[in-house]
Structure formats: C-alpha cells, structure tokens
Specification:
single chain, Fumarase C, Chain A, domain 2, 2 domains
Length: 266
C-alpha cells in the first residue's frame, strides 16, 4: 500500500532546497564584505603596478572599474548573481565584464584564501573602532549620571534581596568599570587582527616579486603576517571578537535586567 503524501511535503522540500542553496553559497553571507573586498583589491592592484608586475595602465583601469562597482553597490543598484560562489567571484567577474581582460590580472599573486582573510580583518577592524566609540560614549554618559546622582541612595541587592544602602552613583560607576574592561578586550583583539594577510596566497605564498609592506602601507596595517600557512588558517581573532562582544552584551544584559526588576513592585 503506497504511503499517502503529506500535504506539506512539497512545500517542505522546496524550502529545504532553497535553504541548501543559500548555505552552499557564501555570497548570501559575505556580500556585506563588498567594501572591504574592493578596498583590498584597489591596494593590491596598486602594489602590483608599483612592483612592475602589471602595467600602470592596467592598474588604473582596474581601480576605475572597482570604484564604479563600489558606487553601484553603495547605491543599491548592483544585482548579485546567486551563481557566484562568493563576494570575491562576484566582484571579479563584474570587473572583467566592465574593463575586459585587464580585470583578470587583479587575481595575480593572490588567492581567495588570503583575500577573505583580509576582508574579514578589515571588517572587524572597522567594527572594533565603531564599538570602541560607542563604549566610550556610554562610559561618559554613565559618569555624567553618577555625578548628578551623587546624593541619591538606593538599595543594593544580593541574591535578589535588599542587602545594603548604596549610592546610585556607585551603581552607575560599576558599569563604567565593566565597559572599560570590554573596551580593553576589543583593543587587545584589534592588535592581533591588525596585520596584513595578503601575500600568503593559497597557503605557501607566491613566487612573484610582490611588496607586502607596500600593500600594508596602503591599507594602514602596521605589519604583515609572518607565516603563510598560519595566516590563511587563522580565525583566532574572530573567536576573540565574538568573546569580547558576548561579554559586552552580558554586561548590557545585566543593566537591562536591573531595569526589569526596578519596573516591578520593587
């Protein structure tokens, strides 16, 4: 006796197929890296021309093409092709379409392995700078509030029970200490991720006479990575960033939970 087909089975199979397609194509996720991919590619093309690996005329065409792609993406007028495997392929394919064969030379002395490592480092470097600014502003506001509430007395809690009278300013300054540590952790993470990975290629570097220090200068990196195999495999800095971000969210959650408590009968 044939099993009856469940009415929802067709829809489930279609949704599953779509999900698999999205998860097998990293473009769905890393398209947000387009600014950093283009920034790194412009620096790479400039270095290739400075090193005599490609002609300056070709580098100029590459830079113009990349800037035009960036402009279209910023305006929201760029249509991504789901067939492209990732953001690197999407941009490079469009570059070749716009400027011709010269666009293919952008990939000289570079692999998607060190390219994605660069994109993520540039992305997280910018995110850390933004978060540090927000944390500094929050600390400043908490200090200001502590100054205005220096005479305000409140109950201090332990195990959800009133324990001792404390100053509201003391409470605010406790969070300042937490956010200072958070800011320090982000800064420390930033030091380790702020090195140039380009030049590592797939895993063992390149035989072409590239100038990694020139690329680092163009992208404002204080140094270059030391070991190519470690560089393309390293994701430590991402785990560090996630840990620092999680701790910051935990500290914010503590403050929010207190507001919940104070909004009750307490």
């Amino acid at each position: 006796m044939a099993a009856r087909k469940k009415p929802w089975a067709g829809r489930f199979e279609q949704d599953t197929a779509k999900s698999v397609e999205r998860f097998t194509c990293s473009l769905h996720y890393d398209s947000r890296l387009y600014r950093y991919d283009i920034e790194g590619s412009i620096a790479h093309a400039t270095m290739l021309a400075d090193s005599g690996i490609i002609a300056r005329k070709e580098a100029a065409a590459i830079v113009r093409g990349l800037k035009s792609i960036l402009l279209d993406m910023e305006k929201g007028g760029f249509v991504f092709d789901p067939a492209d495997e990732d953001i690197h392929m999407a941009i490079e394919k469009e570059l070749i379409r716009r400027i011709g064969d010269a666009g293919g030379k952008l990939h000289t002395a570079r692999s998607r392995n060190d390219q994605v490592a660069l994109d993520v480092r540039l992305f997280l470097r910018r995110e850390i700078q933004a978060i540090a600014g927000l944390l500094a502003a929050l600390q400043k506001q908490l200090v200001k509030m502590a100054g205005s509430e220096i005479k305000t007395i409140m109950p201090g809690y332990t195990h959800m029970q009133k324990a001792q009278p404390v100053l509201l300013s003391h409470y605010f300054l406790a969070f300042v200490e937490m956010f200072v540590r958070d800011e320090q952790r982000f800064a420390d993470c930033g030091k380790r991720l702020n090195i140039l990975p380009l030049g590592s290629a797939a895993l063992a570097g390149t035989g072409l006479p590239i100038d990694r220090n020139r690329t680092a200068e163009l992208l404002n990196f204080p140094g270059v990575s030391a070991n190519s195999m470690d560089t393309v495999a390293d994701r430590d800095y991402i785990a560090e960033f996630i840990f620092a971000a999680s701790l910051t969210m935990m500290h914010l959650s503590r403050f929010c939970e207190d507001l919940v408590l104070w909004s009750s009968d307490e």
